[in-house]
Amino acid sequence: MSAFKILVDLIGYAVARAVLPFLSFGRIYVEPFNAVSQPLRWPCYRRDANGRFELRQGAAGWIGFGICILVLLAAALAIYTAFGRA
């Protein structure tokens, strides 16, 4: 397993697990890390009995990694606009 894949799986999963329920007002959550994979109707998510969406670990890792990239780009842009112009 490559270092990039480990980075996406661990950091992206942790970010998605923390941020997605907050951003979706509790409508989306990520399956637990040690969950046993069960067949899903759709490739990356399913609905539970309450109507909430449960994301699979792999999809959540990529979404969380994307959120990390967007936050880093926004921070870099803010720093550039604040201090980069002379």
Structural summary, described in words:
This protein is mainly α and 86 residues long. The chain has one domain. It has two helices and three strands. The protein has helices spanning 3-23, 57-84, and strands at 28-30, 45-47, 53-55. The longest helix has 28 residues, at 57-84. The protein is flat. The termini are far apart. The relative contact order is 0.19. The mean pLDDT is 85.
Précis, in short:
The protein is mainly α and 86 residues long. Helices cover 57% and strands 10% of the residues. It has one domain (3-84).
Q: Report the span from N to C terminus.
A: 45 Å
Element-by-element helix/strand order: HEEEH
Radius of gyration: 16 Å
| Rough outline | flat
What are its keywords?
mainly alpha, 86 residues, 10% strand, three-stranded mixed sheet, 2 helices
Furnish the topology, listing elements before pairings.
Blueprint: H1 3-23, E1 28-30, E2 45-47, E3 53-55, H2 57-84
Parallel strand pairs: 1-3
Antiparallel strand pairs: 2-3
Helix pairs in contact: 1-2
